[in-house]
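Human: You know discrete backbone vocabularies at least as well as I do. Show me how you would write down a chain together with its backbone fold. No explanation is needed for now; the record alone will do.

Assistant:
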Amino acid sequence: MTAMECIVSAPGKAILHGEHAVVHGKVALAVALNLRTYLRLKSTSTGKVCINLPNIDTFQCWDLSELKQLLPDNFGNREADKRLDPELMKRLHEFGSRNSGNLDGCNVAVLSFLCIYLGLFGSRELPSLTVSVWSELPTGAGLGSSAAYNVCVAAALLCARGTIPSPLKDWNHTVRWCQEDMELINSWAFQGEMIIHGNPSGVDNAVGTWGGMLRFLDGKIIPLSQVPLLRILLTNTKVPRSTKVLVAKVKDKINKFPSIMWPVLDSVDAISGTCEKVLSEMTCKPITGEHYNILEELIDINQHHLIVMGVGHPALDTVCRITLARGLHSKLTGAGGGGCAITLVRPETDGSVLQSMVQDLKDCGFDCWETSIGGPGVQQHALLSVKEEVLEILNRY
């Protein structure tokens, strides 16, 4: 193990346009949120591996001898940049079930860490270390919290192993890895996502790795080179929903009314394309009010399309009504049926207007975050560059 200590972070994600349509071969645009997950790794001499996840009140610690027993007999012949084999994944699931009886959100987060840790270090002597993770992202809200976590775990452990170099130099505060290293980070983060979600699309971990905005079509993920930083308000209605049920509901409606629903999907696809064109223009030309006018119209049209698909919810209607009363435009993000909404905040929006709007949303029982989209992907940080409140939390463990 080469890294004695490191701090990394990765962003969450939101779907800007293309929810549900992407399942049927249309384009989706995913953007990085400027709400991040932070991880601090420290090497120790305790003979143990410990992980602290204060967001979900989880602490786990294992003796190295206990973890070595999970490795398949021929595991030492594998290279660290290969994918995990099915036998190790099977043993990890059995280990989690044996120790907890069920694989809930806390336990699968721990198992995804073990998946990456053992996959990287299983061919050599297992190192003793402590990992602490804290996130600004709410869990279970469809904002890519698990992917940001797995990207951080992958980056820190790859760096600790020496598979990728630490890009941080004495004169740097925050740095990123090269393209080749980020591809390796992304591939290992995807392994952790498989533990948590079974069959993930790969979009969330790709956004966590590269940041900015990604174009997703037919399983192909293309990072877009330049995206303007846009202010948004993110609102979590806290209404639970099942993505699987909602996807099936949209599919049933398409099968029932194909001549009606396919044009809707085509329109959503066109919205994604138009939005991508406008955002690209905003990076190379002076930004005007007309750019924001178009983005707002696209938000409104897409929100109506999503209601037609059957994935709206009265709580989301409330968000749209409250924000529109202040001249701001909102749409659901993700699966719908509750969950989260994003509101585009124009640069000239007065702070008092935003404050009173947030209060109205909170009075409805919603959670709100003022943030931005299009920020950077996974990064390594110097201690002095980390927010004081984040460092304070990570230093407790």
Summary: The longest helix spans residues 258-284. The chain has a mean pLDDT of 89.
